[in-house]
Amino acid sequence: MDNMAGIMEERENECPGEQIRRGRTAVIFAGLGLLLLAVFSVSLLWGSANIPWRELAAEMGHAETRASGRWSEILINIRLPRVLLAALVGASLACAGACLQGVFRNPMADPYILGVSAGGAVGATISMAFRLDRHLPFLNPLTLFAFLGSFATAGIVYAFSLRNGRIQVTTLLLTGLALSALLSAIMSFIVVVSVVEDLAQTVYFWLLGGFYRAGWKEVGQVLPATLVGCLVIWFFSRELNAMVLGDETARSVGVDVERTKKWLLVAAALACASSVSVAGIIGFVGLITPHVVRLLIGPDHRVLVPASAIAGAIFMMGCDTIARSITPKTEIPVGILTAFLGVPFFLYLMKTSRNIYF
């Protein structure tokens, strides 16, 4: 009773502005949740072959056709794992983007722009070129090498971009551009000298980004890494809030800045690598969604990170649905669609956020 009374007294003493902010945050989360369910439902039914929901409901209502009916089989074995995989990839890239924007104190930080996705792609290409899945099947080498590539790239970008305790926009972008060009050359070299048959075609379609090979195996592969990466980022959200104000400010309130940065870079690399290993390079998700969510919900990473994850899942499911529905006979790689949306948004940020830091 005493604890309850204390809580009630604390809430009564809250300023009206804080109560309004909390109420607004709750409304935004409720809206995101409803939008997530709506987009999830539409993504399940729409595609190259639209599933009529009445016929699907009729099949699901009978035990003998629940698992073997035409539409039930498409839903369970094809559409559902693909939609879930798109949601997981979108959530992981959005969380990684929110994390990197906080660590680098720059609204234009993104796994794709900084070359972190390309680093993961190089690691995954090495794994495919040397057929490490045959030699080390118990380690899931594709995800492991993608993680190592993403983490190494994030560390290099951070080390080269830091000048006098600050990271300037120009230095950050040039470092990411240079590393992306180098990593692209490394991937091309590996493809040219590799003796693996059809590696070039596999890497080409994989680098375009998409969910062509989505299945329950891929969902099980990406789910643990996405959960761990996003949860670690959210666990350090208070420290991120302090670090956004500057390293010295963060140290003054007791944050172990270097340790926190290492954990956050590892978590962002893990989240990015999990998506790269199953969907290839999909750009600008980590740029668009955290930025839009920050405008809606504010810069507090305790709510920004989970809201970005939900928004990233919504964005990716929507893009994938459009990519497989826009043309009747072929499927557009979802990475192309996100680039069409992301490049204008990036140019807008370049114009409005020049020399601006969090």
Polypeptide structure, described:
With 358 residues, this protein is mainly alpha-helical. The chain has one domain (2-352): Orthogonal Bundle (ABC transporter involved in vitamin B12 uptake, BtuC), CATH 1.10.3470. 75% of the residues lie in helices and 1% in strands. It contains 16 helices and two strands. The chain has helices at residues 2-12, 16-45, 53-60, 70-103, 116-129, 132-135, 141-161, 169-193, 199-208, 216-235, 237-243, 247-252, 257-279, 285-297, 301-323, 334-352, and strands spanning 162-163, 166-167. Strands 1-2 form a two-stranded antiparallel ribbon. Helix 10 (216-235) runs antiparallel to helix 13 and helix 10 (216-235) runs antiparallel to helix 15. Residues 1-12 have low confidence and may be disordered.
Low-confidence stretches: 1-12
Order of helices and strands: HHHHHHHEEHHHHHHHHH
How confident overall, as mean pLDDT? Answer: 84
The count of DSSP E runs of length 2 or more, i.e. the number of strands, is 2
Helix content: over 70%
How many independent structural domains? 1
Shape: globular
Strand content: under 5%
Number of helices: 16
Main beta-sheet annotation: 2 strands, antiparallel
